[in-house]
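Weekly sync, protein design subgroup
Attendees: M.S., D.O., the rotation student, P.L. (late)

Item 1: inverse folding check
M.S. brought a backbone from last month's batch and wanted to see whether the design step gives back something sensible before we order anything. D.O. pointed out we never logged the input encoding, so this time it goes straight into the notes. Structure tokens as presented (193 positions):
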């Protein structure tokens, strides 16, 4: 199988809809510097930019997978708009206030997508709380695999498992526990609404 090239937004959208890891990773890396620059220029740091971009990219990826989703601007503009909105919300909820946000790029009004993004924000918050409840070593194992991109051999060495299959089994058990905690919390949040 040859290396796939993504030359246009349409190519990337097809790749995202097909859950092609090459498209996902390539698009992720391509647009991260824009968000890093935005956050650094607007009272944030690199760690906050990474968290913000991950949340925004996942929201975008989920939007692309929705039935009937039509992108009416460039992917770059849409991603920037999602991350900009998330960052403004975070700044408004913190002690860091700004007179005017510094925008270097175009952005679009997300209008009808706000309900979807608000739902995603709730889910991200609940995942974070579920991760905290999960405890160690599961929290670190899941973080190392999904966030730090460690492979099973590296995780096996780091956590002292006898082989990568044991590490994979432990990751599976940790994910099952995380899902259980998440869905209990999610159900409670829906009942409280």
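Designed sequence read out in the meeting:
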């Amino acid at each position: 199988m040859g290396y796939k090239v993504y030359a246009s937004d349409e190519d990337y959208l097809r790749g995202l809809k097909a859950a092609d890891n090459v498209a996902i990773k390539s698009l992720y890396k391509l647009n991260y510097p824009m968000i890093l620059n935005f956050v650094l220029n607007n009272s944030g740091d690199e760690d906050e930019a990474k968290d913000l971009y991950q949340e925004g990219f996942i929201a975008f990826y989920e939007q692309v997978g929705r039935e009937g989703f039509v992108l009416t601007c460039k992917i770059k503009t849409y991603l920037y708009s999602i991350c900009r909105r998330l960052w403004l919300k975070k700044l408004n909820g913190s002690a860091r206030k700004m007179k005017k946000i510094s925008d270097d790029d175009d952005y679009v009004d997300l209008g009808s997508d706000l309900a979807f993004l608000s739902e995603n924000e709730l889910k991200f918050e609940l995942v974070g709380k579920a991760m905290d409840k999960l405890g160690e070593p599961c929290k670190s194992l899941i973080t190392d695999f999904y966030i730090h991109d460690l492979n099973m051999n590296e995780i096996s060495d780091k956590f002292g498992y006898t082989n990568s299959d044991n590490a994979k089994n432990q990751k599976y058990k940790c994910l099952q526990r995380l899902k259980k905690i998440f869905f209990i919390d999610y159900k409670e949040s829906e009942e409280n609404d």
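Discussion: Residues 75 and 142 are 29 Å apart (CA to CA). The chain has a mean pLDDT of 80.
Action: P.L. to compare against the previous round before Friday.
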